[in-house]
Amino acid sequence: MALDHSVLLLIAIITGSYTSSKVTQVSVKVGSSITIPCVYREEYRNHVKYLCRGFQWSSCTDVVKTNRPDQSGKFSIFDDKSQRVFNMTIGDVTKHDTDYWCIVEKSGTDDGAYFHLSVTDGTPALYVDDQEVQGFLGGDITIRCYHSTSSGEVGWCKLGGTCVKDGWGTIDGRRVSVNSSVPRVFTATLYNVTIQSSGWYLCFKGDLQMPVYVNVTDRPITTTCLSPTTTIESGKISSSSWYLVTLLIPLGLLVFAVIVAVIVWFMLKKHSSSNPQTSAMAQRPSESSQDVTYSSVVIKKPQKAKEVELSNDTVTYSTLKEYKTSS
Question: Immunoglobulin domain: which residues (predicted)?
């Protein structure tokens, strides 16, 4: 397969001016892994892409393809057609993992680009905390790029797009600032990011680059409900809060039932103690109906005492006189 020499010319132009960007040289520590993105044109969307190992195009060996996975697990490739970028991951980097080509198959001459891995036993000359950074819609994202070299300019590029050197600029219509005031580290800040801000970027220092993927998503909505410690996020209640609710409901019903049962028991006990005759009668064995004699009771009113009529002739009036006796 022959190499399209216009690609090599493009790489040289990019490396010198940074008006656009492709990955050309990355510093990697032995034993780590690195992901390298390669941009392709729209017409190559459905073409096979692959990673080729070796310094010379004519003698390089393809190690993984989009239609043929690597069985060893050291190499992987993913074609992100929405971004027109295919990502190649090289794991467990050794001193022999230095020269690679990212290539697109096409009729006639394949199209490809060379990149170099500068493998070191110690700390890489240019690195980031993580190759993937998460951000929220409308917010700001800051990436820290660490370096150990004192020479060369610093900057931040959108892969396949424009770059911003130390200072202020715009990428995709959004403000970007690059600050190198702190020794051995510079920051790139993206302001008021949008969904279109997602994609691959490069922080660079001199000839070295480090790819960083920025993923912008909607900010999750958190609503307080039920209690201060219970939250509903994105329309979903947390499993711990749901478990607490399902536990408290039957427990509350059980306590209520016990209280009602105790109240009823005390009322029945009080009623039975206030009617001892009823309790005694309830305890007396029932007699046979054959031993019961029924009688009729008639209540007679007592006769009035007859008035004694005395004749006026028989009435004797007397006067009583009190006599004192000598003691």
Answer: 23-120, 130-217
Domain ranges in the chain are 1-121, 125-220
Which two three-digit tokens encode residue 321? 């006189």
Q: Give me 84's structure tokens.
A: 């027109």
DSSP lists the bridge partners of residue 158 as: 201
Q: ∠ CA 15-147-209 to the nearest 5 degrees?
A: 25
CATH class of the domain whose range is 125-220: mainly beta
- Residue 246 binned pLDDT confidence (cut-offs 50, 70, 90): confident
Provide CATH code, domain 1-121. Answer: 2.60.40.10
Is the pLDDT at 233 greater than 50? The verdict is: no
Give residue-wise pLDDT tens across range 295-316: 555 555 555 444 444 444 455 5
Query: Judging by beta carbons within 10 Å of its beta carbon (0-12, 13-18, 19+), is residue 124 exposed, middle or buried?
Result: buried
Q: Structure tokens of 233?
A: 């996020």
Type of residue at 69: P
Please list, in sequence order, all residues whose beta carbon lies within 8 angstroms of the beta carbon of residue 141, skipping any fewer than 6 positions away.
Answer: 133, 135, 189, 190, 193, 197, 214, 216
The three state secondary structure string of 75-93 is EEEEEECCCCEEEEEECCC
What pTM did the predictor assign?
0.63
